[in-house]
Amino acid sequence: MNLTRYRRWYYLLSALVILPGLLAMIISVISFRSPVRLSIEFTGGTLWEVRFSKPVLPGEAVRVFQENGFPDVNINTIGDEQTLEIRTTEMTPAQKQSLLEAMAAAFGEIPEEIQFALVGPLIGAEVTRAAIIAVFFASLAILGFILWAFRNVSHPFRFGMCAIIAMLHDVLVTVGFVSIMGWVAGWQADALTLTALLTVIGFSVQDTIVVFDRIRENSRRRRGEDFETIVNRSLLETIHRSLATQINAMFVMVALLLFGGVTIRQFIATLLVGLLSGTYSSIFNATPLLVSWDRGELSFWRRWRGGNKQRPAVA
């Protein structure tokens, strides 16, 4: 079986998956000045906890807030179906009283107030900028590590760049998913979203290096084989390990998604999509890209190859 033969279809599928997320991010930037809808942890606003004497669906509460001038609201249950945590933009005492009356009209009672606070942005621009810088330096560290670890293999720079490209692919898929869900389900990016994104980056790089390491081993053992054959052999030898590791983690996440609390559902869904993307990109993007680069199919990077003639895998 030659998995690398269909590499152009893999790239096309990745592009089709990334494109809707990119469009959603562009629309979000125009509408919210951010690629995703940000929660009050980034922007500041109102944190309000109320309790009813009977269960109340968060969706019904969201509708009450939207009908009363608060379209940007995120409401979840806490502990049980009677306690709601409300995160929305800053409100005045008059607006608060108006919302209490609206909830009384909608649900037949004025809820008990557990907590009401106007909070500043707990995760401000500095923290977000620090996370972006951390990802940048992590990319440099990954490139440096691969250059050193794969120094005995032809063109170690290509291995580092393909790992980084796969990582960026997973970042785009994950952020695009959150952006789309911001429009579809009103999701807002919070601290857990940032945590999920950084976790996805770690998983993506780890899975890619597992495959690359097998390519390095096979390059030493099978010096007479052409590079595409070595890459395909390495993929077939490691794909079961990659899939077993990732699928086990995904089973746990699906269980949490179905039976876990509402408060972690967005985090788990984001992490699940990121891991799916990471599993796909490690097998069907990062590794086939090595073959495309070796064969001169990436015309933009052809200067790094120095021609179209196929070379042995080991210098």
Portion in strands:
5-15%
User: In which order are the strands of the major sheet placed?
Assistant: 2-3-1-4
Helicity, as a percent range: 55-70%
Instruction: Give the ordered list of helices and strands.
Output: HHEHEEHEHHHHHH
Write down the overall geometry. Answer: elongated
Per the CATH scheme, the topology name of the largest domain is: Multidrug efflux transporter AcrB transmembrane fold
Outline the low-pLDDT stretches.
303-315
Q: Roughly how many Å is the radius of gyration? A: 24 Å
Could you characterize the architecture of this molecule?
This protein is α+β, with helices and mostly antiparallel strands and 315 residues long. The chain folds into 2 domains: 3-33 and 124-305, Multidrug efflux transporter AcrB transmembrane domain (Multidrug efflux transporter AcrB transmembrane fold), CATH 1.20.1640.10; 45-119, Alpha-Beta Plaits (2-Layer Sandwich), CATH 3.30.70. Helix content is 66%, strand content 8%. It is built from 10 helices and 4 strands, in the order H-H-E-H-E-E-H-E-H-H-H-H-H-H. Strands 2-3-1-4 form a 4-stranded antiparallel beta sheet. The relative contact order is 0.14. Mean pLDDT is 83; it is low at 303-315.
